[in-house]
Design a protein that fits this description.
The protein is α+β, with helices and mostly antiparallel strands. It is built from three helices and 20 strands. The protein has helices at residues 50-76, 89-99, 101-116, and strands at 2-13, 16-19, 27-30, 37-38, 43-47, 119-121, 126-129, 146-149, 154-161, 173-178, 186-197, 202-209, 220-228, 234-236, 240-243, 246-253, 256-261, 263-267, 271-276, 296-297. The strands form five sheets. A six-stranded antiparallel β-barrel has the order 1-9-12-11-10-13.
């Protein structure tokens, strides 16, 4: 018998990144659009690099000048730049500060970094999303230019009741179906169980989900958790009816229906397990039983044989 727990959840990608430009320069070109698949290292967009290249050249010149200043300071202290290994640490530090060498190095490295990052590249294989900028507009260093989503690393975030914790474990199979497209289903496995019960008595669980072109980041989904619990005495849900608040299953003997008080255990989408009140092999009535009474005469118009589970 496959026990089934049902919960509502939301899809998210384990690898999701927001890309931003490092400099407020005009956007020279955009190479992709929303929904495009990109490979790792592929160009997304690039900025105009005139100012950035010019800044690199200026800071490089400033660095060379600072290097000469450093050499002059060291000569004044009786050392040569090539003998820097013999210069006392305190003297070298004072010379670097006085010449402005460290500041020039930092400014040059920053200029090179900004020029290098004038081109946005995909950090991993994924899909482009949230790209709304247009070419020739000035890029914002505060706002996200676009997002890259790895659609092959989707996971479902959902919750289960504290009382249901003993019924799940790592690696249990799950089935995920979007509310918007009930005919779309994807399988996965439980990958994470948060060891904390919230104030509402719920426990957060994550499950990895197989990739699908019809599943998207942020989708609201129905999550079904399946776990095999071995052989059980099982009846279809339609066989169980309520009489005076108690569960009853009608069995067939001859041409009469006999009711049996039962206790159900686990359930899934279409079946209950029976823990008490019914014997294996009994012929049960699975439909047309809503208005039956004990020892009502019945006529069988269809018979369905099922294998023991």
């Amino acid at each position: 018998f496959n026990h089934e727990l049902v919960s509502n959840g939301k899809l998210s990608a384990r690898r999701f990144v927001d890309l931003k430009f490092e400099s407020a320069e005009p956007i020279a070109a955009i190479f992709v659009k929303n929904g495009d698949h990109v490979g790792k290292g592929q160009k997304i967009a690039e900025l105009s690099t005139f100012r950035l290249s010019n800044k690199v050249a200026q800071t490089k010149t400033a660095l060379e000048n600072a290097k000469l200043e450093l050499q002059d300071v060291l000569i004044g202290q009786g050392f040569a730049l090539k003998d820097s290994a013999r210069v006392p640490k305190a003297t070298m530090q004072l010379a670097r500060i006085k010449s402005g060498y460290d500041q020039a190095v930092a400014q040059y490295q920053l200029a090179v970094y900004e020029l290098h990052n004038a081109v946005l590249r995909a950090p991993f294989d994924g899909i482009v999303a949230n790209l709304f900028s247009k070419p020739y507009n000035t890029a914002s260093v505060a706002d996200v230019f676009c997002s890259i989503i790895d659609s092959h690393s989707l996971e479902a975030d959902f919750t289960v009741l504290e009382s249901e914790l003993p019924l799940i474990k790592m690696g249990d199979r799950v089935e995920v179906s979007p509310f918007a497209m009930t005919n779309v289903k994807a399988e996965g496995k439980i990958s994470e169980i948060n060891p904390l019960v919230g104030t509402d008595g719920m426990v957060k669980v994550k499950a990895t989900v197989g990739s699908s072109t019809r599943l998207f980041e942020g989708m609201n989904v129905r999550v079904s958790i399946h776990r095999s619990v071995g052989k059980q005495l099982v009846v279809p849900k339609g066989a169980v009816v309520l009489r005076s608040g108690k569960q009853v299953v009608f069995t067939l003997s001859g041409n009469k229906a006999y009711w049996n008080y039962v206790h159900t255990g686990l359930e899934n989408a279409d079946s209950y397990t029976i823990t008490d009140g019914l014997k294996e092999g009994a012929t049960i009535i699975t439909s047309g039983n809503i208005n039956l009474a004990h020892e009502s005469p019945v006529k069988v118009i269809s018979r369905q044989q099922t294998d023991d589970k």
